[in-house]
Amino acid sequence: MQPQMNTNSILNRKSRLIYRKTLYISLPIILGSIAQNIISITDTAFLGHVGHIALGASAIGGVFYLAFIMLAFGFGTGAQIIIARRLGEGNNQKIGRVWEHAFYFLLMLAAIVFVIIKFYAPQILQRFMVSDDVLHATIEYLDIRAFGIFFAFVNMAFRAFFVGIGRTPIIAYTTVAMALINIFFDYVLIFGNLGFPEMGIRGAALASMFAEMATTGIVVLYTLIVIDYKKYSLFRFVKFRLKIFLRIFRIASPMMLTNFASIGTWFIFFIIIEHLGEMELAVSQIVRASYIVLLLPVWGYSSATNTMVSYYLGRKRPDMLWYSLKRILVLSVVSVALITVLFFSFSETILSLFSNDPLLISMAFPVMLVISGAAVVLGIAFMLFNAVSGTGRTEIALIIEVVTLVGYVWFAWMMAHRWSGEVAHVWTAEYLYALLIAGMSLIFLVSKRWEKAKV
């Protein structure tokens, strides 16, 4: 009997350790995600009181911009996986090389993306959009927002480093600062308060750019003052080595394509809705802001899943994959469910923050019912999907994402133009997305084809 009790005690301690480690990594990212997404949420809240054209334009422009940001996020995730693996192996000195090569590439990529957004976005958007008013407002937004891309990409490089080594509190600090700066400049620039010029949607874009600039300054100072960067051979800026870059790129490129395809598909999703009407587009932007709130825990737990899976594989402990994943799944589902309950307890108050138009609010409520259930299912799906990425088999993650997104777009288009035409029904595509990505990720993980992956 005693050996059994000892075994249970050890398992309980191990379980508590997994929960603590998951929360240590995840909570700062969740807090950071709250602050980061407050930018989108506050833009929506302020612009919702400007009018439905500005609200719709911020939806299209915001998702278009975010699609390129996710290229940087994908490359950063690839670097993060390798950094976590080197940490697990005890090779701290190699972490700096990985980070610096990621930094080189992200700066170059930022320059390319800037040119695309600044000079080619109008031609791209006018091919898809129906409303001239929303198109012109979207171009106004992106014309200023493009300058923030350099700061955003640098921030992604630092994020990869801090998440990879498990020092995530800085993410919360910087993004809280980002949110506060964005809220202030939204307030003064959109409506022209405190003697500032009234700029409308251009003010929202400028506020976001100032917030990204401030974040870069804070994270650089934090790294230089607080972090023992010499321990990781950081800021040596060694000569570029193709071999190191290609190793990162092999892991990161599928993640880049995965993230770009995911948000790019969301852009297509919003274009599908824009064809239903300007009001439907405005409603969907309100829903998107609300959806972000419901999924806040998911972003943190997803990063924890990535880091912990890669870390344990680096420690030659593949048995810990399922052990830790099950506990992260519990945390994810419970957290999303609690936020969903709280959200609906104050749904009328929350929706009124985004608009004072009774018609918009009444149209948004049925869609909110749809996405509340989808958020819980995604709380499972994203953990399984990020476990696949964490094993280093990012090419499998890309295949899963592409197959899922094809089905997602097809379903949304059919629902909009063949089966229903109701905006709430179009949003049910989120359920199909979650079920497909969860099912395929689970099949791969059970197959154990990830055990021999090299990073």
3D architecture notes:
By secondary structure, the chain is mostly helical. The chain is 84% helix and 0% strand. Helix 2 packs across helix 4. The chain is globular and about 55 Å long. The model has no long low-confidence stretch (mean pLDDT 81).
- Largest sheet descriptor: none
Mean pLDDT: 81
What fraction, in percent, of the residue positions are helical? over 70%
Number of strands: 0
Radius of gyration: 22 Å
Global structural class: mainly alpha
| SSE succession | HHHHHHHHHHHHHHHH
What coarse outline follows from CA principal-axis ratios? globular
User: How much of the sequence is in beta strands?
Assistant: under 5%
How many DSSP helices?
16
From the structure provided, what is the oligomeric state, counting identical versus distinct chains? single chain
Low confidence ranges: none
A few lines on this structure:
With 455 residues, this protein is mainly α.
Descriptive labels:
mainly alpha
Topology:
Elements: H1 2-48, H2 52-89, H3 93-126, H4 132-145, H5 149-164, H6 169-190, H7 201-225, H8 242-274, H9 278-294, H10 296-314, H11 320-345, H12 347-354, H13 358-390, H14 394-419, H15 423-426, H16 429-447
Helix pairs in contact: 1-2, 1-6, 1-9, 1-10, 1-11, 2-3, 2-4, 2-5, 2-8, 2-9, 2-10, 3-4, 3-5, 4-7, 5-7, 6-7, 8-9, 8-14, 9-13, 10-11, 10-13, 11-13, 12-13, 13-14, 13-16, 14-16
